[in-house]
Amino acid sequence: MKQFNDLTLTDDFMFSKVMRKKDICKEFLELILNKKIEKIEYIEAEKTLNIDYDKRGVRLDVYLQDETTVYNIEMQTSNFANIPKRSRFYQSVMDVSSLDKAQNFDDLKESYVIFVCTKDLFGYNEPIYEFVTYNKKHDIIYGDEVHKVIVNTNAEISNETKLGKFINYLKTNEVSDDFTSSIDDTINEIKLDSEMRGEYMVLEAKMMDARREGHEEGREEGLEEGLELGRAEGFITAYVNQIRAITEREGVSIDEAMIKLYIPEEYWDKIKKGLLNE
């Protein structure tokens, strides 16, 4: 992991903290979606959504709403291949979570799942890709009010527009207008916040401990498949022990415990299998 003082807006931790500032997040949404937003409110910081105890949950870094719409915003700098299906899963879990309260399909709000990606996923050099559901033959919009939006920070775009200045800031950290100046000032404020620094250090320590325990377990296992597989199995063993302790101590679900520990999603199924087969 990066040192705290080296974090930029493209780092997930910093991005989620900056987007907790209402005026910045509102201006970001208006810029990306090209629409006016009157007022936003955060549903919950780093919201964890679960639809069943033994099913996969999800932690939404920035989850907010206005009067008619809900928004989920995520920064993505790796694992680009699974974003379309990941956004589909996020969307479905958001809807199920909303319906628990509304109990009426008509009460579902329009929704946007937004991924800010440091790679052009589709190769058209567009800064913004927006996807909606429609009928291919007659080009009819389906009307489910579901939007998937991919922000391509790797796009080549003129620095003369506000969007271009924002994209350029994501690439270079160069301040060129009031919006990027506001973001930059917020990042500097966060870096001076001892509580934020402590939170990042805790996250860093957890990830280092998990890696260390995984390597140790991997070496002790001495699996025939070799060192790499040994390390992977070591991660699982270490995580299973940590998850068991948290669920027993705090009374949370397996998914909630895995999200608390920032466990990579590729280990979730094996961890659950290890726990449920004990």
Describe the 3D structure.
It holds the Pfam family PDDEXK_2. This is Rpn family recombination-promoting nuclease/putative transposase. InterPro entries: RpnA (IPR010106). By secondary structure, the protein is α+β, with helices and mostly antiparallel strands. The protein has two domains: 188 residues; 83 residues, no CATH class. 47% of the residues lie in helices and 15% in strands. Strands 1-4-5-6-10-7 form a six-stranded mixed sheet, sandwiched between helices. A hairpin with an 8-residue loop joins strand 2 and strand 3. 24% of the residues are buried.
Q: Which key phrases capture this entry?
A:
278 residues; alpha+beta; six-stranded mixed beta sheet; two-stranded antiparallel sheet; globular
Largest sheet: 6 strands, mixed
- Poorly predicted runs are 51-57, 221-231
List the helices and strands in order: HHEEEEEHEEEEEHHHHHH
Mean pLDDT: 82
Q: Roughly how many Å is the radius of gyration?
A: 20 Å
Strand order of the largest sheet: 1-4-5-6-10-7
How large is the count of helical segments? 9
Shape: globular
- Number of self-contained structural domains: 2
- Report the β-strand fraction as a percent range: 15-25%
- What is the oligomer described by this structure? single chain
Organism: Lachnospira multipara
Pfam family, one: PDDEXK_2
Protein name: Rpn family recombination-promoting nuclease/putative transposase
